[in-house]
Amino acid sequence: MGKCGIMSSKTVLVFLNLIFWVEDEVNSSIMKVYDEYNGTNSNAQSRAIDYIQRQLQCCGIHNSSDWRETHWYKETKNDSVPISCCKTAGCTGSMTHPEDLYQEGCEALVVKKLQEIMMYVICTALTFAAIQMLGMLCACVVLCRRSRDPAYELLITGGTQA
């Protein structure tokens, strides 16, 4: 029973470590993806960024001004962000109308969503661990009762062979 408790503790620590690792991994990879954005549907990074910005209602890494540092912004030279940053239907993505753009950055929202998912995974793992511990406890109780009950004694045959 002690080994199982240690294993459960190690499992929890691994999952908690994984949650913080997710945040670090998102920080490093999201900048690469934003830098590879080109605004076309043929580019997987562009589709991913547009999808995330629409679904999470966010714009840029920390806010909409992050787009100024991307290759896409420098190449288009039109002082705008992708249409996926727009809150309203008539928005063109122009940075001269910041009230039409989502102001919250996507990085924090992506990390929050991933941490929520990881918490569900942790809760599921802990539930399975608790069920296993309960099963082992029941097995121990059955074995202890069996050893004390004379009705379960082994019958020794006196050497008769069939």
From TrEMBL:
It is found in: Membrane. The chain crosses the membrane at residues 117-144. It holds the Pfam family Tetraspanin. The keyword Lipid biosynthesis does not apply. Its main location: membrane. One of its GO terms (cellular component) is membrane. Gene3D superfamilies: Tetraspanin (1.10.1450.10). Interacts with claudin-11/CLDN11 and integrins. This is Tetraspanin-3. It comes from Cyprinodon variegatus (Sheepshead minnow). The lineage of its organism: Eukaryota, Metazoa, Chordata, Craniata, Vertebrata.
